[in-house]
Each structure stands twice: as structure tokens, then as C-alpha cells.
Amino acid sequence: xxxxxxxxxxxxxxxxxxxxxxxxxxxxxxxxxxxxxxxxxxxxxxxxxxxxxxxxxxxxxxxxxxxxxxxxxxxxxxxxxxxxxxxxxxxxxxxxxxxxxxxxxxxxxxxxxxxxxxxxxxxxxxxxxxxxxxxxxxxxxxxxxxxxxxxxxxxxxxxxxxxxxxxxxxxxxxxxxxxxxxxxxxxxxxxxxxxxxxxxxxxxxxxxxxxxxxxxxxxxxxxxxxxxxxxxxxxxxxxxxxxxxxxxxxxxxxxxxxxxxxxxxxxxxxxxxxxxxxxxxxxxxxxxxx
Length: 290
Hints:
The chain has 290 residues and is an alpha/beta fold. The chain has 14 helices and 8 strands.
């Protein structure tokens, strides 16, 4: 059985429990053992934390990696931001012995030591490379007859190989296994605006989120498939804020793990999709015919 230490991050367990529930259902069905990482903290956040305190970011991230090292397991993330933070910290400390020494001096105060013994993988990579397309295809018992747009999220383009499209290609192929029709809309790589939302709401909504949603709707998408929780917050909350500006869009958001769970035959109630903030009930009705 494939086995990984599961790094859930902050947003999924706190704000998107349906993604965690769906992921655990999917992992069990495909034979992926995910071991909870006890005592982990925020990854920390990949954009602003390094600008505020780079050493602090490295130490916090290295402590999380050390927890997985203690289990003797590579680490798997569901969140794009967590993936980038942990991956970059892992590579930085593995390749800069002076940084590793400095970080470990601080970690000694907390009874931890980073050794650089494990790999960091996104769940998309684990599904595609370790489980495999054929196994996932075998588990699909209820193909989903909907048209969707893909939003991969900026951090999913980070790749050690230099091939920035490697994981987005994986995500798209896995999504297609669920039976959906994928609508290409030309702005897949445009940032959703979540980082800029922290400093300029107007720019974030009208110059990042709105162009994407408009193109998705024009392409006939009935939902947007995501893997990043921060992007999901931007899409769901952002559409509410756009409506307050008189701009009416209501496109449901669904995480790829939720999409897989539905195609595996789990009901929307099994994975509690009703916890979404967006117009998910319309999508549920379309998928389940209730």
C-alpha cells in the first residue's frame, strides 16, 4: 500500500471540511494510507511570511518536515500553498548546509531536528504517479456529466524539474477520468487574485477574478474545479463581493478530491458538500438528479 504523512494545512480542516472528508474517502478507496501528522503547524503561508521573516518561515516549515521525518514517511499536501512552502524549504535546506545548521540550532530549543531525509509531494502527484491512472479509472462508478473549467492555482506550477505544466497536466487528466467535459477558456494560468486581495480588493476582484469567471461562463462551464483552498476562498467569497458591486456570477466551486469522491459513487451528503459557501446545491442537483 502507498503510504504518506498527510499535511492538511490550516484552511482545509478549519474552513473546508468537505475537502478533508472527500480526500479521506478517496484515499481509502484507492488504497492510499495517509498518516495524520500530529502536532503540525501552519506551513507557513508561502507569499507574505518569507517577506516578513525568512528565517522564521524556514524554521516553522522545517519543524513540520521534521515531524514527517520522525514517522519515516514522505509528506503529501492537499494545499498548493503548503506544497510550495514545504517543497522550497526542503530544497533550500538540503542544498544549503549553512542554512540547515542555522535552522537546526533554533529547532534544538523545541526538541526537533531537520535532516533532509524526505520528499514533499502534492496529492495530485501521488494520485498520478503512485496510484496511477488505471486504478483511479477502475474506481469511477458514476461518471459525472457536467462541463467544468479548470483552475490549477499559481503554486501548482512550481516544479523542481522546470516543467511548470507537469502537475497541471496531471490534474487535468485525473479530472477527465471522472467523466466531466473540460472547457478550455484561455486564462487558466491567470492568478485568481487571492494574494492581491490582502492589499487591493478592487484590483483583485476586477482584474484577476472577474476576467477568469467571465471566460469560464462564456465557455459554458457549469463549475470550476480547483485544488487550492485559498483559490477556492477567492472564487466563492469573491463572487459574493462582486454581486455587491452589481456583477452577477454564480459559478460553483468543487475541489478535485470532492469531484473524485462523487465519481466514485459517494453522495454529496457522504462528503458534506453543503458546507461550501458557493452555489453548490445547483451543481449537486445537476450531478445527482435530486
